[in-house]
Design brief:
By secondary structure, this protein is α/β, with parallel strands linked by helices. The chain has twelve helices and twelve strands. It has a six-stranded parallel sheet with strand order 2-1-3-4-5-11, sandwiched between helices. Helix 11 links the parallel strand 9 and strand 10. Helix 5 runs parallel beside helix 6 (133-141) and helix 9 (227-238) packs across helix 10 (252-264). Keywords: DNA-binding, Transcription, Transcription regulation.
Length: 342
């Protein structure tokens, strides 16, 4: 047993473990390039030797454990919920969260090495686009773990991602409108090729087909998850010869645009038109009337992503490369029985 009269050093622990001082230092700093068995042995010996890291000298600071969170578009209500979840989880775990926006694909592979040099332990991407092979290769070479939150396009099989049950959410939203007696139900979503949009659209179609309700031409439209897209697509759908009595919208922000398009035509919500959104961000609660929506657990997704990224940075194995958290329908004031049904 080690003597308690002398303070244990990295050299002491390294000699006991039969490894280099650099390896012990990597374990202490949570580096991922240490074999799991070696990591377990070193951690055990650190406890056995009662190792305590020396206090920093005056003027020196201990670099905190930080994780980079990158968005590829401007912040909105959705982004705010994700960031809140990440920051809250970071505070609980003692981990710094650095948020940035990168709208363009880096031309140089040095950006990943720069993140490591800045002390980042992992990268969490909240992205609207497909991760390129160049990006993935740069991160792999830099040994920087990557976790993608709510990917619009399912990433490579080896890329870890956190999302929600989009199909089940689309199914629940449409079933709610059908239960209210609506049969002319439209869907306004995001990018046509986006995996999350396709899942929500498929959930909508599955509910309609199960009830034997046809989807007329022009009743499904795609765009981006933005207010202006809701305004434009809502206008187009409501101007159809036989407009819908209800619309399922793939995003709360887009739903606000649809609501404005309806008001511009003198339609009452929900008296003349019922609307269901998706996400359950703050805009759903401040809308007038408050928006019935599918709650996507965005804050929880941020927390799961951060904890998963830290596990990967520590060299731990994870059970699945893709995790989906459950969605939930939240009924508020923007939906009502079909006009004239009661």
């Amino acid at each position: 047993m080690p003597s308690r009269s002398r303070r244990a050093t990295l050299a002491t622990v390294a000699a006991s473990a039969g490894v280099s001082i650099a390896t012990v230092s990597k374990v202490l700093n949570g580096r991922s390039d240490v074999a799991p068995q070696t990591r377990t042995l070193v951690q055990s010996l650190l406890r056995q030797h009662d190792y305590v890291a020396p206090s920093p000298r005056r003027g020196e600071s201990i670099p905190p454990c930080t994780v980079e969170v990158q968005f590829d578009d401007d912040f909105n209500a959705y982004s705010t919920e994700i960031i809140q979840g990440l920051v809250t989880a970071g505070a609980e775990l003692g981990v710094g969260v650095v948020v940035s926006i990168r709208k363009q694909v880096p031309r140089s592979t040095a950006w990943a090495r720069d993140l490591v040099a800045a002390g980042r332990r992992a990268l969490i991407a909240v992205t609207c686009g497909q991760l390129t092979t160049r990006q993935l290769t740069a991160l792999s070479r830099a040994r920087l773990p990557l976790v993608v939150i709510d990917p619009l396009n399912l990433p490579h099989a080896d890329v870890t991602s956190v999302g929600s049950t989009n199909f089940a959410g689309g199914l629940a939203a449409t079933q709610h409108l059908l239960a209210l007696g609506h049969r002319r139900i439209a869907y306004i979503g995001g990018p046509a090729t986006a995996a999350c949009n396709q899942a929500r659209l498929h959930g909508y179609r599955a509910a309609m087909e199960a009830e034997g309700v046809p989807v007329p031409p022009g009743y499904t439209r795609s765009g981006h998850f933005r207010y202006q897209d809701g305004l434009d697509n809502g206008t187009a759908v409501l101007d159809l010869p036989e407009p819908p009595t209800a619309i399922f919208v793939g995003c709360d922000e887009t739903a606000l645009g649809v609501m404005e398009a309806a008001r511009a035509r003198g339609l009452r919500i929900p008296g003349d038109l019922s609307i269901v959104g998706f996400d359950d961000t703050q805009v759903a609660q401040i809308a007038s009337p408050q928006l019935t929506t599918v709650r996507q657990p965005l804050r929880e997704m941020g927390g799961v992503a951060l904890r998963t990224a830290l596990r990967l940075a520590a060299g731990e194995k994870i059970d699945s490369h893709h995790v989906e958290l459950a969605t939930e329908l939240v009924v508020r004031g923007s939906t009502a029985p079909v006009p004239g049904s009661a």
